[in-house]
Amino acid sequence: DIVNADKMSGRTRKYKIIFSPQKVRQPHCAANVTCDEWSFYLLPLDEDIISMELPEFFRDYFLEGDHRWITSVARALQLLNSLYGPFGRAYGIGRCAKMSHELWRELEEDGENDGQGRKPEISNVFLMDRDTDYVTALCSQVVYEGLVDDTFRIKCGSVDFGPDVTSSDKSIKVLLNAQDKVFNQIRNEHFSSVFGFLSQKSRNLQAQYDRRRGMDIKQMKNFVSQELKGLKQEHRLLSLHIGACESIMKKKTKQDFQEMIKAEHSLLEGFDIRESTSFIEEHIDRQVSPIESLRLMCLLSITENGLVPKDYRSLKTQYLQSYGPEHLLTFHNLKRVGLLTEQSAGETLTAVESRVSKLVTDRAAGKITDAFSSLARKSNFRAISKKLGLIPRVDGEYNLKVPPDMAYVFSGAYIPLSCKIIEQVLERRGWLGLEEVVRLLNGNEFSVSDSTGEETPPGESQRIVLAIFLGGCTFSEIAALRFLGKERGLKFIFLTTAITNSARMLEAMIEAKA
Amino acid sequence: MSRARADEEEYWHSSKFRAFTFDDEDDELSQLKESKRAVNSLRDIVDDDDDDLERVSWSGESVGSISWSIKETASSSTSSLEGRDSSLQKGSSSYAALPKQVSSYSLSNLFKGRNKLPSFQSLSDALSDIGVKNYAPELRRSKAEYKDYSSDWSPKDTVRRMQRGKVCSLERFRSLQDKLVLLDEAVAGHDGNVITAVLIFLKRTLRREILFRELEVRQVALCHLIHFLKETGEQKLLLDLLRFLDRTEEVALSQYREHLNIQDVEKRREFLKSCIGLPFSAEDTSHIQDHYTLLERQIIIEANDRHLETAGQSEIFRKYPRKASILNMPLVTTLFYSCFYHYSEAEGTFSSPTNLKKTFKIPDKQYMLTALAARAKLRAWDDVDALFTTKNWLGYTKKKAPIGFHRVVEILQRNNAPVQVLQEYVRLVEDVETRLNLATKYKCHDVAIETYRDLKDRIQLTAYKCKVERGSAEEEKINSILNNT
Asked: Is Protein transport one of the keywords (chain A) (predicted)?
């Protein structure tokens, strides 16, 4: 189309069409159009994060069932294997993980093996489908990096901070990675720890600057040439991050954040379901935010193994009324990927329950519904959560400053399922003892050792694990696994099809203009 | 949603509902403010010149967007880049815009492909340097690579070759049998692009009914074809396929989706009308029906109100000129609009809130919430009052709200309701703790005092004295209570 339009307007251009990443067929090209292929696979976002920058992966694979990106994943594995391999063991769970792994193995067999004689650096590889754990992706993030992503949207490792953050009338684009020393120290911290840290740092900075008062010329010269630049840098970074924190706080207090977190935690833990449902209903009625309302509904659905039909109908109607009737299409998409489903008729209220509820007031009926519902249906998340101990039981208050486990990324309420699975499989060197969990996760697990049968050399290489997320990975999961790594003496490298969060996942499901 | 629409939505939702702010974050927030003050005070000392700022310049495009904007993997429409050289420029400059601080490699280095063993410290270096050797745009591939001269590859090998990126001619697979084997091999190979490529070939060379029939038992291939048809916009074929598969609901949805492409409201309205008869589920049918009715209603209201506005006779439109049209807005937004501009109208008119409530069966809770927001924005406190007052059968009035009075207070406060008005409703908050919080926060002294009195909490009551003005009526009230108990 574009070519023709140009032709008509008399513009002569030479066109180069670069298919990224692969060409599927030879299109009908006009004379001045040539075609080529550019396979672009991996973008390092940081010291330990590699992204394939394929946000469309989630929708293409999980909604449309299209396998177009599986080769890309396999090739990425091939590349990493040739650079840092051969890999020791490969573990995985999920249909896509399985297919990617199989395809990769085929590519390895076919291709030249130029990894011979190299010392293997990655001992373990873990592939996981996003739909193995939707819950974690849907939760509000409270580690600093996750919050920044949720609030400002980090793109390709950098973020746009507007005037409200920079305290000037300019916006600024900032790279967020390990090179930013301030960021590097707070990125994985729970938000509550961040203020203390920033305030400490600014006091230090103040002290450093104050030193110049007592200096003589020589010292001052030294100071200016050696230290001033570093201090300036630190000052700039500090003020940016403080500004970001302020902005985040402002937004969160505006949005009833505390109440929402409370509702989320209730859903994760499995009590006060009716209250949470009411909260969601009100959230929709008040037209707070279309994405947030959806997110809460999906969280309710996944933790409860689907919404009770009555709730599904009523919440759907209210959603359409509050945010627009065209979202009928969105609901169908969500149903298809399994994010927002309805319990089937056989699983809902028993005859007794419906009789009883007619006799009591509305308020009490809700609680009875709760009790009966949880008896009548099987809830995979609840069962998995129990089996894996995802909800920490703490005496007293959970220590966020020196956390005992990965649950700190969600304020101590919940250990991310995906991370827990990885932890367990690595510990057990396989799926032994996890059969029940695997069954609840719908199978498709695998555990494969290197075909050369070599004993994986001990020492350094044992410690590096490549965690691969197919369909997206959140900063909270990254923070959690970094934490796990520190605890167990492992180093995690993350390969993901894209960085994701609840908003991106849900936006991918919304039907925009056709 | 388009930009314009988002703006319109914002207009309608602005200051409508805002969350309650409890000052729990005081400690942390003040800590933050401290840090901010500290840092800001240093600004005078530090020369904030721009030279020091290391701004990474991007070519206006994030790297990721290359794959977004250029990719059309399933061979759908192509996107073109201007000129050969500048495309190299654009593509490569975006690619080279890797974090400046991390990799200082120039463009030429990227494509040189030096082979050196990396250590993990420089993972990003490694990726930007070594491996790229194989993955740089090889823009001068020989023509030979495109043609497939030797023609005797088996289906399995053909698929393999396609997976490696070689273009193969599939013409030699003539029989149905051969074609199906080819398809099955493609599916087994897990590469979606190959599967789609084979499907394109089959679509061209097989009779439709046969293709459909064979796909019915091949789920994976079926998904790929459906996705392909969606992306290329081959709506008719897609619908035929879905009908063949008896997926009637999807047929309905697919057709309904088309309405998003129709900009003209009248045409859209007609289109929606035609959607009502489609094979949706019972509930969805009523949603579609509502969608049509809503748009129909909005068209009428819009025409009417525009007329009123330009005529300049109506006070409300003069005082609060409309910032956006009501067309294609959600129902609740429409209700808000109606409660704002047409509140006093009788049920008979199309634009009256009660009419909307009845037509769309809007639940009481939603109605009250919306009406409250609208009237509060107009500072029409009497209307607010009337909303919550009901007469029971004995003729006594009492205030009731299905939404919780704390929400009412919140909305009123956001619209700067005077304390006397706020006080009324704070008084009605059932939960004592919430009531006290709100009373203290919004200085509804009487309510606080009364509540402490009812709780018989002398200590708190005495403590509360410092919150009221010396010699005020409130102080007297506290004193009299303390003295009489």
From this structure: yes
Question: Which residue of A173, A246, A259 is in closest CB contact with B56?
Answer: A173
Do the Cβ atoms of B192 and A68 come within 8 Å? yes
Number of domains in chain A: 4
Please check whether residue A397 lies inside any domain of the structure: no
**Distance linking the first and last C-alpha atoms of chain B:** 63
Residue A374 within any structural domain of the chain: no
pLDDT in tens, B68-96: 333 333 333 333 323 333 333 333 333 33
A164 CB within 8 Å of a chain B CB: no
A428 touches chain B (CB under 8 A): no
Contacts of B98 in chain A (CB under 8 A): 43-44
The reported pLDDT for the residue numbered B450 is 87
Q: Hey, what are B460's tokens?
A: 């708190």
Q: Are residues A22 and A117 in the same domain?
A: no
Whether A351 and A445 map to the same domain: the answer is no
Show which of residues 476-505 on chain A sit within 8 Å of chain B, judged by CB atoms. Answer: 491, 493, 498
Same domain, A101 and A185: no
Give the pair of three-digit tokens for residue B459. 């200590």
CB contact under 8 A, B117 and A64: no
Domain around A351? 273-304+306-355
CATH number for A315: 1.25.40.850
Interchain contact A238–B (C-beta under 8 A): yes
CATH number at A192 reads 3.90.830
User: Looking up tokens 């969105």, which residue turns up?
Assistant: A330
Q: Residues A88, A174: one domain?
A: no
Whether A373 is covered by a domain: the verdict is no
Contacts of B102 in chain A (CB under 8 A): 44, 177, 179
Question: Is the Cβ pair A254, B21 closer than 8 Å?
Answer: yes
Does one domain contain both A68 and A118? yes
* pLDDT tens for the 514 residues of chain A, in order: 454 554 444 444 444 444 444 444 444 444 444 555 555 568 888 889 999 999 999 999 999 999 999 989 998 998 888 888 788 889 999 999 999 999 999 888 877 665 555 677 888 999 999 999 999 999 999 999 999 999 999 988 889 998 888 878 888 888 888 888 889 999 999 998 898 888 888 888 888 888 877 888 888 888 888 888 888 888 888 989 999 998 998 888 777 788 899 999 999 999 999 999 999 999 999 999 999 999 999 999 999 999 999 999 999 999 999 999 999 999 999 999 999 999 886 544 444 455 444 544 444 444 444 444 333 333 589 999 999 999 998 888 888 888 999 999 999 999 999 999 999 999 998 999 999 999 888 878 888 886 554 555 555 556 899 999 999 999 999 999 999 999 999 999 999 999 999 999 999 999 865 4
> Left if phi > 0, otherwise alpha if psi is -120 to 50, otherwise beta: which for A426?
alpha
Answer yes or no: do A175 and B78 touch at CB < 8 A. Answer: no
Q: Does A444 touch chain B (CB under 8 A)?
A: no
Q: Which of A286, A319, A509 to mutate to test the interface with B (most CBs of B within 10 A)?
A: A286
Interface test with B, best of A54, A232, A287, A293 (most B CBs within 10 A): A287
Contact status, residue B374 vs residue B414, Cβ threshold 8 Å: no
∠ at Cα A94 (A90, A99), nearest 5°? 70
Element (H, E) at B74: none
Neighbours of B459 (CB within 10 A): 8
**A229 contacts chain B (CB < 8 A):** yes
Closest Cβ opposite residue A40 in set B84, B135, B227: B135
How far is Cα A146 from Cα A140, in angstroms, rounded to an integer?
A: 9
- The Cα–Cα gap between A321 and A365 comes to 26
Amino acid A458: pLDDT: 52
Query: Looking at the domain assignment, is residue A138 inside a domain?
Result: no
Question: Does residue A109 sit at the B interface (CB-CB below 8 Å)?
Answer: no
Which positions in chain A touch B200 (Cβ < 8 Å)?
Answer: 24-25
Please say whether the beta carbons of A328 and A340 come within 8 A: no
Q: Does residue A220 sit in the same domain as residue A293?
A: no
Its ipTM equals 0.82
**Are A33 and A50 within one domain?**
no
Chosen domain end from A191, A218, A253: A253
Residue B458 · residue B482 · CB < 8 Å: yes
What's the token pair of residue A116? 């011979």
